[in-house]
From TrEMBL:
Record Gene3D superfamilies: Hotdog Thioesterase (3.10.129.10)
Protein known as: 3-hydroxyacyl-[acyl-carrier-protein] dehydratase
Pfam families reported for this sequence: FabA
InterPro entries: FabA_FabZ (IPR013114), FabZ (IPR010084), HotDog_dom_sf (IPR029069)
Keyword Lipoprotein carried by entry: no
Chief location bin: cytoplasm
Organism: hydrothermal vent metagenome
Keyword vocabulary terms for this entry: Cytoplasm, Lipid A biosynthesis, Lipid biosynthesis, Lipid metabolism, Lyase
Length: 149
C-alpha cells in the first residue's frame, strides 16, 4: 500500500460521499497509478440507482478513475510542496472513448489502472481502465488540467 484513504485526502480535495478512491497500491511518477475502491451497498448512490437492482453508475466509475489520475498528476509534480498542492485542483477537460463493459454491484472491488498517454505542463492525457476480478468493466481516455483553486 502506498496511500490509504487518509493520505489520499491530503492529496485530493474530494470528501465523502464523493471521494471514490480508497487506496493507492502502485505508482510510478509520470507513468502510471493503480488503486481501488470498495463498492458497498451502504453508498448513498444505491438509494436511487436502483433500489431493487443496485448498479454502480458508470459516471461514478469514470470519476473514480479521474480521481486516481489526479493523485498520479499531483504526485508526479516533483518540486511541489504540500502547501502548493492544497492550493490546486484537477479539472476535467474531456472524456473520450468511454465504454462500459460489465455492471459493477455492491461487494465488488473496482481496481483502477491509469497510464499516462501524454503530459505537457499542467495538462494530462490518461488511458484509464477499471477492473473487477481482473475483468475490465470500464475504460476511457481522460484529459485533465491542474489549475489554481
Amino acid at each position: 500500500m502506498l496511500y490509504n484513504v487518509i493520505e489520499i485526502q491530503k492529496i485530493l480535495p474530494h470528501r465523502y460521499p464523493f471521494l471514490l478512491v480508497d487506496r493507492i497500491t502502485d505508482l510510478k511518477q509520470g507513468e502510471y497509478i493503480e488503486g481501488f475502491k470498495n463498492v458497498s451497498i451502504s453508498e448513498p448512490v444505491f438509494q436511487g440507482h436502483f433500489p431493487d437492482h443496485p448498479i454502480y453508475p458508470g459516471v461514478m466509475i469514470i470519476e473514480g478513475m479521474a480521481q486516481a489520475g489526479g493523485v498520479l498528476a499531483f504526485k508526479s509534480m516533483d518540486d511541489t510542496s504540500q502547501e502548493e498542492i492544497e492550493n490546486k485542483v484537477v479539472y476535467f477537460m474531456s472524456i473520450d472513448k468511454a465504454k462500459f463493459r460489465a455492471p459493477v454491484t455492491p461487494g465488488d472491488q473496482l481496481v483502477y489502472k491509469i497510464n499516462v498517454i501524454k503530459n505537457k505542463g499542467a495538462v494530462w492525457q490518461l488511458d484509464a481502465k477499471a477492473y473487477v476480478d481482473d475483468k475490465i468493466v470500464a475504460q476511457a481516455e481522460l484529459k485533465a488540467m491542474i489549475v489554481d483553486k
